[in-house]
Structure prediction request, 300 residues.
Amino acid sequence: MTIEFSLILGLAAALAFLVWEYIRLHKLFEQTHNTRAQTNEAVHRKALAILDEARNEATKIIKEARVGAVAYRDKLTSKMEAALDGVANREINDFKNALEAETINIEKAVGQKIATRYDEVRKEVEAYKAKQIAGVDQKINKAIVEITQKLLSKTINAREHQDLVLKALEEARRNGLFD
Amino acid sequence: MDYLTKDQVDILKHEIDILMNSKYQSKTNELVRETTLQELEKRKGDLENWKLEIENLRVLGLTIANEPTRSNVMIYGAWVKKNIGEDVIMDITIDSRIVAGAQIVWNGKYKDYAYVQRLLS
Prediction:
């Protein structure tokens, strides 16, 4: 009986130990479960917080990036505009300078041509004028001579004409014309 | 005797030619023709001599300012005959532009004694 009892007692003790152990484990399990749940919750919250923070940070970064991008874009645009303006201005200036140079050259060439033509025309006009004046002078001289001749011829009477012809003949004889 | 200028001598020469040639071409009345022919025959020698003399005459070119009167021509002619020769006739040209005096051409030589030259020079 003692053995049996001892066995029973041993079994009972083992059983009790088992129950106790079960209960302890169960408690431990629950505790662990709770802890895990809590941990999970905390982790979840933490994760959410991190996510929120990350999102906020990301939002902030994105916002900043957007602002920076806008600023950069503006800056780049300004730079590009400035550069384009510079290029355009340079091109325009080059074109303007070339145009001015070309215009000046053309003006010079045209001016020179006009000056040359003007000189030619002026010479032609001068020559024509001189010719006309010479012609008029010649006509005037001729007219003056003719008028003078007619007047003189009329003012000399017949006897004087005769004497002057005889004088001319005498002069020719003296000069040996009839020798 | 009147002094003849070259123009007059030329006319005379032309008339002599007509006279000398007409004896072969006359269409006048036969009696007139006969008479003329006889007269021409008599004077044939004279006509030929006159023509020869005319052709041998020497010519003095004389340009003067106004139209000479017959009296002027006679006086100029007398001077020419006396100072140059009996066989010289004058070829007178009128040019009022010379005013007075004369331009003379003799044997291809020219002399200007016109008063216009003296006035204009």
Notes: The radius of gyration of chain A is 69 Å. The mean pLDDT of chain A is 82. The longest helix of chain A spans residues 2-155.
